[in-house]
Task: inverse folding
């Protein structure tokens, strides 16, 4: 007798057929889902290079903190040393403003001291310090893809 | 025959070969054809031929689900019109908005209607959720429809969120920056999720086109499908929730392929499960045509009039061109996300991921946790005092957070009181 919903008698052939069918359908579904997600991950990004040249060391006065708006960083000079601090709040990515004793985020009120450490608000981490180097043509080169400890300087 | 000319013309048209092919039943003039009209029309068949008197009382549901549906329709129509002018590119998006406001005939009206209908829809969907909760209408057999409703609530928020990147103004840019960063706090997949959402590391052209695709096709399609299932389930689950004393002899569950024996059933009741007809005294039912349809059309006219008035008297805001360098100070999300933003200002992970995640999860599980079949179909039933109190406390907390975020937060998200002069946000250093 043939198995039917009213007579759910399982035959070996029916069981194997159902198993193979369900396994195949599961794999096909998972492959389609994985493919769809992978399709949505871009392979090429048309984003600006994370490295940029900030100008000659002489362009920045001693003791100055310069906000480089397009790159959302602060360039700090003290004596003959240069450091570069991220202006992107570690909380949710707003641009922090320079305040009297450090930095303020306007979005959710995080505050940072002059060393970029969190002094208040919801920010979970200190602001990042970026690698500063001198390029061959004598300009300051900043690489935003590489973070460094706060006590690492470029000495000119 | 002294009917007015249009009526006579319509009656003539109904009886022509073409008229009969389209309408089949025609304008109902008997009780039989009133039922047939509802069943035979594609647009009307989502509704029953007869409804309970209780359904028609405004206080039963406040019409919130219906109003949400109408707002969705208004949004779909104005949205498609806006698409004829909107260009989803970072260079042209903002200027399309300016064109719509100053150049396109009725462009300003369409944008304003879209905006206010969207705001109203978010509010109505939230209120609808509260109504269903406070009337205990999520209980068996309506558990799954409650889940679909939660899904629709999230899709509504998603539509709203994806929609406000599109003008590419300051509010748009910074709201999406903040929103995408909240996503990156999700455990394990967070940063990848943000990358996927934005199509890159920053809010830029790729993010704009992604949000556009989500906003104009993917999410509306999902929403429309879910709305259809939602309404269909209302019928299949036995119409609107009724107080138990009125529904006491409702047939609870009918096993597949088996008819209950405690009632005499005509062929009409050969369907499985509970139907609106089962367990209601016939005298409590009225014909949907015209009683339900008339009220539905009335509600639609009121909703349309309200949206039109809002759109005529108040313009949708458009801030300055998106500037990735300077967030506005304070940078605020729209009102329905300000409670979330206030929580996020304490901790992005707890306020932006854990608390909302737990709230939605608990909300979804409510019908499976609260299984006692008491207090169904009545507002604030005494038997549900505990459930209603818990819900009200959470709701109150969210409202307070929203009010704080809206009125008590000034530049740098610091405390301010709304009745004092707000110090002007400091200009760029």
Result:
């Amino acid at each position: 007798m043939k198995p039917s919903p009213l007579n759910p008698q399982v035959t070996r052939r029916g069981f194997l057929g159902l198993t193979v069918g369900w396994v195949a359908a599961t794999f096909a579904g998972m492959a389609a889902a994985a493919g769809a997600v992978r399709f949505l991950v871009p392979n090429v990004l048309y984003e600006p290079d994370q490295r940029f040249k900030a100008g000659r060391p002489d362009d920045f006065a001693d003791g100055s903190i310069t906000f480089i708006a397009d790159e959302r960083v602060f360039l700090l000079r003290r004596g003959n040393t240069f450091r570069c601090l991220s202006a992107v709040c570690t909380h949710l990515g707003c641009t922090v403003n320079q305040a009297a004793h450090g930095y303020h985020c306007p979005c959710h009120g995080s505050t940072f001291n002059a060393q970029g450490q969190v002094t208040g608000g919801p920010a979970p981490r200190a602001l990042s310090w970026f690698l500063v180097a001198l390029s061959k043509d004598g300009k300051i080169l900043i690489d935003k893809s590489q973070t460094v400890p706060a006590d690492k300087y470029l000495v000119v | 025959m002294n009917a007015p000319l249009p009526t006579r013309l319509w009656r003539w048209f109904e009886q022509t070969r073409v008229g009969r092919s389209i309408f089949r039943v025609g304008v109902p003039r008997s009780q039989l054809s009133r039922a047939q009209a509802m069943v035979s029309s594609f647009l009307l068949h989502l509704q029953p031929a007869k409804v309970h008197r209780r359904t028609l009382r405004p206080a039963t549901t406040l019409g919130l689900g219906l109003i949400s549906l109408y707002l969705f329709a208004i949004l779909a129509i104005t949205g498609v019109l806006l698409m004829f002018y909107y260009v989803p590119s970072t260079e042209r998006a903002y200027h399309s908005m300016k064109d719509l406001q100053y150049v396109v005939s009725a462009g300003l009206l369409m944008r304003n209607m879209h905006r206010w209908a969207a705001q109203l829809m978010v509010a109505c969907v939230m209120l609808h959720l509260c109504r269903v909760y406070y009337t205990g209408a999520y209980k068996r057999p309506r558990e799954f429809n409650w889940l679909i409703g939660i899904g629709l609530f999230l899709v509504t928020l998603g539509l709203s969120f994806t929609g406000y990147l599109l003008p590419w103004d300051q509010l748009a840019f910074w709201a999406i920056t903040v929103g995408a960063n909240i996503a990156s706090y999700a455990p394990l997949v967070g940063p990848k999720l943000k990358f996927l959402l934005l199509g890159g590391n920053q809010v830029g052209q790729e993010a704009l086109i992604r949000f556009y695709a989500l906003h104009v096709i993917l999410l509306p399609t999902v929403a429309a499908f879910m709305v259809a299932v939602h309404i269909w389930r209302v019928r299949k689950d036995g119409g609107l929730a009724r107080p138990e004393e009125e529904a006491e002899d409702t047939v609870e569950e009918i096993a597949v392929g088996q008819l209950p024996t405690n009632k005499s059933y005509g062929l009409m009741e050969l369907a499985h499960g509970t139907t609106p007809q089962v367990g209601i005294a016939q005298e409590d039912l009225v014909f949907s045509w015209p009683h339900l349809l008339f009220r539905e059309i009335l509600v639609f006219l009121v909703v349309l009039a309200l949206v039109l008035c809002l759109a005529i008297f108040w313009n949708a805001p458009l801030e300055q061109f998106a500037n990735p360098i300077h967030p506005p100070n304070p940078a605020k999300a729209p009102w329905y996300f300000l409670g979330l933003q206030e929580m996020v200002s304490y901790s992005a992970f707890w306020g932006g991921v854990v608390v909302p995640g737990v709230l939605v999860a608990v909300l979804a599980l409510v019908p499976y946790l609260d299984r006692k079949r008491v207090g169904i179909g009545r507002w604030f039933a005494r038997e549900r005092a505990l459930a209603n109190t818990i819900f009200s406390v959470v709701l109150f907390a969210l409202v307070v957070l929203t009010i704080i975020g809206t009125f008590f937060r000034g530049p740098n998200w610091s405390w301010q009181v709304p009745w004092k002069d707000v110090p002007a946000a400091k200009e760029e250093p």
In short: The helical segments of chain A are 12-40. The mean pLDDT of chain A is 87. The CA atoms of residues 20 and 39 of chain A lie 28 Å apart.
